[in-house]
Amino acid sequence: MVASPVLAQSSGKPVTFKGLEISVAGVERAPSASLKDCPPGDNRVNAMTRPGEEFAVVTVKFKVLPAFQPKTMLRKPTLTDSAGKTYNTAVSFVDVGSVPEFSCAIPFRVPTGTALKSVQIDSTSLDLAGADTKK
After folding, report:
1. Distance, CA of 68 to CA of 102 (rounded, Å)
2. CA-CA distance, 32 to 122, in Å (whole number)?
3. Does residue 61 register a pLDDT over 80?
């Protein structure tokens, strides 16, 4: 089995993947979060945390480049903490490329105070070290 290459982004710098320029705009912590699809569409469900949890909301910016193929499908993003544990989100990528630029606030339910390492979008890894204000 051959592992697919992982594109890694250094803190604050965009990475290009499948015709998309992707960068992290920031990370916020919140007790509730909107579970909008990305780019934001009609799915507008809200979620609340339980005691001992918080949402790490990672805002990711996208720019559609000329090389982007409209039928490109992206897997749901995942989040990795500093201990290597992976967290999932309910947010899906829908109609990527329908607008030339967009940003998405992607919530991940994590234990309160979790130190974040990176967010993965398909085989692209975006560093959160500089964006995570609560380490």
Report:
1. 14
2. 25
3. yes
